[in-house]
Amino acid sequence: MALPKVLSRSEDTRKQRTQLIKKTQEGLKVGPNQRSAETTPVVRYRGVKKSFGEVEVLKGIDLDIMPGEKVAVIGPSGSGKTTLARLLMTLERPSGGIIEVEGEPLYHKRVGEGLVPADERHIARVRSKIGMVFQHFNLFPHRTVLQNVTEAPIHVKKMPRRLAEEKARAMLEKVGLIEHIDKYPGQLSGGQKQRVAIARALVMEPKIMLFDEPTSALDPELVGEVLAVIKEIAEKGDMAMMLITHEMQFAREVADRVLFTDGGKIVEQGTPEEIFEHPKSERLQAFLARFRNGFGGGSQ
Ligand SMILES: Nc1ncnc2c1ncn2[C@@H]1O[C@H](COP(=O)(O)OP(=O)(O)O)[C@@H](O)[C@H]1O
Ligand SMILES: [Mg+2]
To answer: Of 2, 144, 292, 295, which has the highest C-beta tally within 10 A?
Structure first.
């Protein structure tokens, strides 16, 4: 199997990126009217809340993700990580607050100074800038690998088949699956299926990719190949990423910034070093200690 080579991102590149992100975040403080195009976050959550029935599972999320930024999200089961991603993917609707994608409200339209609820067409258009990879791959079982990857470009983006196939092949090459393009999902390992799912999201050229515990449903021996592919994409691509993960070493190596969620809030955030070496809150310290003792697993 031809797996892409994993290159370790040089510390210099990461430092440069961190500085750039800090600068752009400082730039944001000047206020929306003076904001230049290059400092617009790819995604912005403002006071985002989500309740299921009586239970509020997100309690006011404020978060900016800058273009190209790789943000890891860690936190206990039930803390709201999946919901955070599903709201952005429009698989759930927020109960309150605003989400913006490249400065444009996802669930609202601007009318004069105000915002009104957006129609489905607007939501679908803005959402098309987001790609997501799920814990369970959700491939079409009766379509080949190539057909799975070309489905959305042909039917959603109305791309000519030939062009969609060309792009799909390039993506499948990237995830090391070019020799499997005519197989069906049932003929693939879990790791290969997840790599198809990654190629399927990539082919739509999203501005941000969301990964929701992409390796937690895999047999342990298959985790590495999937993490290697994600790492490669993170290092080579200029796409932003939100990586929800229980793989702490991976978060540390790939992320520019790590968020720790607990009880529906972002409790702490910082560079991988700040979060893993110098956790401030007791809750984060306890969470990391559970991992070190081998009790951190489990996912929803
Ligand atoms: N569709 C739903 N209906 C009711 N409760 C839900 C639904 N989805 C998530 N929840 C609840 O919301 C909380 C946060 O869930 P989730 O975002 O999946 O957390 P995490 O991904 O951090 O484990 C949990 O208590 C979960 O049971
Ligand atoms: Mg989850």
So the answer is: 144
